[in-house]
Amino acid sequence: MKAVCATDLSAASEAAIETETCLHCLGKIGVEEIHLVTVIPSNVHAGMPGMKFEKRRKRALARYREIIEDAGFAVETHVVRGTPHRRINGVAGTVGASLTIVGSRGKSPLENRIIGSTARNLTRTTIAPLLVNRIERGVESPELVREHLFDRVLYATDFSENADRTFEAFSYLRHATVDAMLVHVRTPKDPGPESGDPRDRLSELAGRLAEWGIETDVEIRQGDPAEELLAVEEAYSATTTLLGSRGHSRLRRLLLGSVTEDIVANANGNVLVVPPERSA
């Protein structure tokens, strides 16, 4: 499995790349080759006063490469220029990546009002499953909030086609997952009784995970999906929340409010977003 790891050469990126436990988790789910990608914005130039981009890039990427190679991975590096989320997706498509990884320091009042961060833009547009590594905020030397990435997985489902496809991620996560919480949030838009009892449907999924030795609980909630899922994530102390992204029209992409984006912006831990089939 190939993974693209996006870095902006910040302290937060270092935390995601240099954490030995994190790299070990990636190895357990089958990642063998990591492509390090750093994107230089088009409006930033090496000749600008005080900007020693070339030396800084080479020095940081060389250090990151050595760390990742020492952990047993094959490594390639890519320095590209342009819009970060577009270029990251471009590299992922070119190398045939099965996973894209990006660090995020999480929510802030500004980030919750304005779409601008690479993590949130990738949530909308990613062509491969996207792992958002949650990094500590407000400290000079940040660390990963949840080092054991896939130890405790919260899987959120609305029983849609893409949610079913998202569940298949357990086919590789199971090698690193100890227990899982399967959650469905009832809303007024839920289908009628003819589609089956949601608890029975969750129990069926739990049975599949039990065959892989994963201890599983199920929970049904009612209310706002994002709020309820975030409440379960906190109570369950999930290391990663697994959910699908259905994708939206161009107009919808300009607006805040999707469940997936709210989870990415506000979750305490890591988030793994699986895009629709059409984007894969």
UniProtKB/TrEMBL annotation:
Species, as recorded: Halorubrum alkaliphilum
SUPFAM superfamilies: Adenine nucleotide alpha hydrolases-like
InterPro entries recorded: Rossmann-like_a/b/a_fold, Universal_stress_UspA, UspA
Ranges for domain UspA: 2-132, 150-275
Protein name as annotated: Nucleotide-binding universal stress UspA family protein
The organism's taxonomic lineage, starting at the top: Archaea, Methanobacteriati, Methanobacteriota, Stenosarchaea group, Halobacteria
Pfam (any one): Usp
Family per similarity comment: Belongs to the universal stress protein A family.
